[in-house]
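so my prof wants the structure for this chain in the tokens format not the other one, which i didnt know existed until like an hour ago. anyway here's the sequence
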Amino acid sequence: MAGRFAPRPARTAVRGGYAGVPAQVRSGGRVRVWAPNGPLDLGLVLAPLRRGPADPTFRALPDGSVWRASLTPCGPGTLRVQRYDGGRVRGEAWGPGAEWLLEHLPELCGAADDPSAFTPRHKLLALVWRRRPGLRLTRTGLVLESLIPSILEQKVTTAEAYAAWRTLVRRFGEPAPGPVPGRMHVMPAPRTWALIPSWEWHRAGVDDKRASTVLRAVRVAARLEEAVGLAPEAARARLEVVPGIGPWTSAEVVQRSHGAPDAVTVGDLHLPGIVGWALAGNRDADDSVMLRLLEPYAGQRHRAARLILLSGRVPPRRAPRRARGDIGRW
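here's what i got, hopefully its the right format
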């Protein structure tokens, strides 16, 4: 173990891979190199973990590296991941959570996923499947970091949810350890979430219902984090015990925390219409129609939905975008 995660000496020269990182804080962290056993599109695998273009916990740089700031069971940590040298993955991490992040690097990059279990049943999915051989489903091993932003995304536009997440993490999270590019923060600990005043939720654009759900969740944070050791369906059942967490939210969580290939999102405003249009030319499909169309992919329905989204085949818009709310006017 120690050999794989041996600390590296501080860098004295500035070379590629650290674009945007201030020279005075460029220093080596703990390193692990891992070789995937098949094609791997790192950006595609990790993309679902990004909550908007200005997510303070996530950065994707032009050099192909991806940076994540996470609150691990061992404390805050920052992970930099990049492909190099014949397709291997190099992870470098900083902070108290560095070793935990490196230990879980393969699963983060899709090592626990089995793409061979998927068989395309539609021409569209077969085409996308051939064009995206590097798609793997990530498994973070962390529940709360996916749960809280998913709660913030309930019943609002993505722009509103991303802004709320960005505001709260920057204000109440701690700066990410290591030579991070730009302003990166680790999300707040459960106790910190619990102590956020009501007016700060309001200032971030979060209504009382979503704020209350977050507060209920962080009160049982330890029990929810334990759900990562359960099968996805059992984990979803545990999450849904918390009032305010329903099937939509629990599916969004286990897709990321567990890499669950069958956790299709129901109750979504757009997904049924997208799936219906892509597979049957039905733009008015509801959840029941979507689930019927995805029946041939039982066990792999989330992967099928992901491929449909990657195809770009969406129904033409026939209504204006939903207006953003302003709880300050309520």
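also thought this was worth mentioning. Residues 158-172 form the longest helix (15 residues).
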